[in-house]
Structure formats: C-alpha cells, structure tokens
Amino acid sequence: MSAEELKAKFGITGVLDFVNEGELVKAVVSRDGMQAELFLQGATVTRWAPAGQRPVIFTSPKAIYAPGTAIRGGIPIIFPWFGPSRTNPKAPQHGFVRASPWKLESVSADKPGEVTMALSFGPSDPPSEFWPEPFHATYTVTFGKTLSVALAVQNKASHPVVFEEALHTYFEVSAVTDVSVSGLAGTTFIDKVDGATRKTEASNAVKLTGETDRVYLNTGRQLAIDDPAWKRRIRLEKDGAASTIVWNLWAEKAAAMRDMGDPAWRSFICVECGNAADNEVHLAANSEHLLSTLITVDAIA
Ligand code: BG6
Fold first, then answer.
1. Which parts of the chain register pLDDT below 50?
2. How far is the CA of 280 from the centre of ligand 1 (A)?
3. Rounded to whole angstroms, how far apart are CA atoms 285 and 65?
4. Is the shortest distance between the CB of 92 and ligand 1 below 6 Å?
5. Ligand 1 pocket residue status of 245, Cβ below 6 Å
6. Which among 57, 10, 59, 53 has a CA at the least distance from the CA of 34?
7. Can you say how many angstroms the Cα of residue 260 is from the centroid of all Cα atoms in its chain?
8. Is the Cβ–Cβ distance between 144 and 113 less than 8 Å?
9. Strand, helix or coil at 278?
10. Average model confidence (pLDDT) across the chain
C-alpha cells in the first residue's frame, strides 16, 4: 500500500501519519511527546523516543531505504535463520523477512499515551526461494512510555520446523565504549570474533573494547544497558528468547560498511533477544512460538 492509502485507512490526525522515505513507506507516530517510526519493509521500528527523552533506538544516518535492502539500525526482525544460512550459501544473511514487505493489519490508540500496530507476514507457498516451510508471522509493537515488541510465528506446515530468530535491536548510547550490559554473568557465549570459541561470561557489567559478536546462550529474562554519561539504564525483559546477542562491528568494519561509517558506529550497541544456535526453536505442526521484549528506560544517578 502507498503512504496515501495507509494514511486513508489507518491515519490518526496528530498521532499517526504515513510518509515516504527514500523508496520506502514509514509510519510516523507522535503521542503526548513520545515519537516513533516504523517502516513497512521488515516491520522495522527505526525510532522510539519516550516523551522528553533522547531516542532509545538507533538508526544509522547512512541507512539505505530501498526495497530489498535491510535497514541499518532500528529493530530488524531476523527469521528464519540467524547469520548465514546453514544450508544455502546464496541465502541472505539473517533470513529474508527483514527486507521484505509486511502488511499492516491494525492500529489501536485506545490507551492513553500508547499506539499499538500489528503487522503480518505470510503465509505464502513457498514463502521464499530459500525457505520451503509455510508460516504466518504476526508482529505487535506498542509504542508508549515503554516499547513492547512481540513476534508470533505459526508453523503452517504439517510437520515440525526448526528456525532461528532475533529482534536485532540497535540501542542508541552516549558511546559504545562507555556503556555496560548486565544480566549475562555466568552464561556461555559463542565468541564469533574468536573462531566461535565457547566461553563463560565472568562479568555482570560487560564492556565492549573492540569488535564484538557474541551469541549468549540460555540467558535470563532481565538484561540492562547502563549508560552513565546519559544517566540512564535501558532495561530489557524478554520472553520466549533464550539467546542474547551482543554486537558492535567497531571502527575498521564500520568504515567499510556503506550504511554505517564513522562516527555512527560509536553511538550504538546491539543487544538482541532471540533464539539462535543451540537455542534454535523446534516448533510442532500447527503450533505458535512467541518471542517478545519489553524495553523500559530508567534514570540513574
Ligand atoms: C549480528 C551478527 O547480530 O548482526 C553479526 O551476530 C552480524 O555476525 C551483524 O555481522 C550484522 O549483520 P548484518 O547482516 O545486518 O550486517
């Protein structure tokens, strides 16, 4: 649907608008000082700033808004595999839904200060040349004082399917070198910048000092990113998500990436909630799996 058609069907004066950015269409949300944006491509949230606060979600100033190109930043939805496909080297990294159009199904602004948008993907048969399994996905986003994102995947095949998934959230921070992530101490992680070696996290305040690409396994529900310079703690509460991925590509790789560069890489940390590697999801026929994250911002001294 075009921006005009979406506006006619779902627009709410002063609260929800639809505009073009590059070659894509995005929803622009504004309610009681809260601001947010979501692209129909990939159902990608690219902005959320609670009233009176700095943005919490980071999107690269060099992001490319074109059909079939994953948006650099925001909350890309990774499905049905995480990283490269295990079976097909030609398949796109992180699956195909992040760079495909989603359908906006409904909008609700019934609750004060909140806007909820529900989007869907599939089923189509086959859903992708790289993935034969029929599925239906629903993504429900509630923008408000908190940000809630929930991905429900229904297996429409008549047999069990195995998949990986993640809500690949880029958080905006004062400086990636100055923030710390808590909630991971004692867990095992796959260190992808050290030959996929498995290690145990010793720290409850993980600080990044160079390129970082880690899949933490069997992690608990609660995580936090402490950002002392901005005097805030971003709290994550996840459900249906056994893995936590921590990523920043650092200077050299950022310089080589056409939609990142310097200094943008310094301003984000990815803390992704999902199910990857050992935590892949095994979903029975005609069953549903729900992955969700609730993001809250607290002031700290
Ligand atoms: C992370 C992966 O989640 O995403 C990294 O762990 C990957 O290995 C990164 O480089 C970014 O991926 P992409 O495809 O968006 O450049």
1. none
2. 17
3. 36
4. no
5. yes
6. 53
7. 17
8. yes
9. helix
10. 97
Q: Which residue has the tokens 């799996």?
A: 289
Question: Can you read off the two tokens belonging to residue 46?
Answer: 């690219």
CA distances from 266 to 78, 162, 234, 269, 296 (A): 23, 35, 17, 8, 22
Could you give the C-alpha distances from 187 to 17, 112, 198, in angstroms and in order? 43, 39, 10
Distances, alpha carbon 51 to alpha carbons 20, 29, 48, in Å: 24, 12, 10
pLDDT on residue 126: 73
**204 Cα: distance to centroid of ligand 1 (angstroms):** 24
Identify the DSSP state of 209.
-
- Please state the length of the chain: 301
Helix (H) or strand (E) holding 3: helix 3-10
Cα dihedral 27, 99, 73, 181 sign = positive
Location of structure tokens 């050992």: 278
pLDDT at 269: 99
